[in-house]
Amino acid sequence: MKILSIRPAPPGGSTIAHADVEIIDGAKLFGIRVSRADDGTYRAFGQNSERGRTCAFSHEIVAQIAEATISELELTGHRTHDRTRS
């Protein structure tokens, strides 16, 4: 899992950031919205098209995306501004 680009979300919502990720070597996804739910679990959503969802992730992949996103935000000095974080 590799973060290619990251855009921190503004403060006040559950969205942590939007990230471009390389899931595995050669498979890149752009504009993934990473958020934290009220119960503390993470969510990752791909962009929608006029037909609906463009991708979906297992719980394990969501955890990897969230961990990589949070690590990248910490490395670059951004705070998550996540209202649901303890």
Describe the structure.
It is globular, with a radius of gyration of 12 Å. It has a single domain, classed as 2-Layer Sandwich (Arylsulfatase, C-terminal domain), CATH 3.30.1120. A 4-stranded antiparallel sheet has the order 1-2-3-4, with helices on one face. By secondary structure, the protein is an alpha+beta fold. β5 and β6 form a beta hairpin. The C terminus is likely disordered. The termini are far apart. Helix content is 20%, strand content 41%.
Task: Give the topology, please.
Blueprint: E1 2-8, E2 15-24, E3 27-36, E4 42-45, E5 48-49, E6 52-53, H1 59-75
Antiparallel strand pairs: 1-2, 2-3, 3-4, 5-6
Largest sheet: 4 strands, antiparallel
SS element count, helices:
1
What does the average pLDDT come to? Answer: 88
Percentage of β-strand residues: 35-45%
Strand arrangement within the widest β-sheet reads: 1-2-3-4
Please give a quick description of this structure.
With 86 residues, this protein is of the alpha+beta class. The chain has a single domain (2-75), classed as 2-Layer Sandwich (Arylsulfatase, C-terminal domain), CATH 3.30.1120.
Give the tags.
41% strand, 6 strands, disordered C terminus, 86 residues, alpha+beta, 4-stranded antiparallel β-sheet, Arylsulfatase, C-terminal domain, two-stranded antiparallel sheet, 1 helix
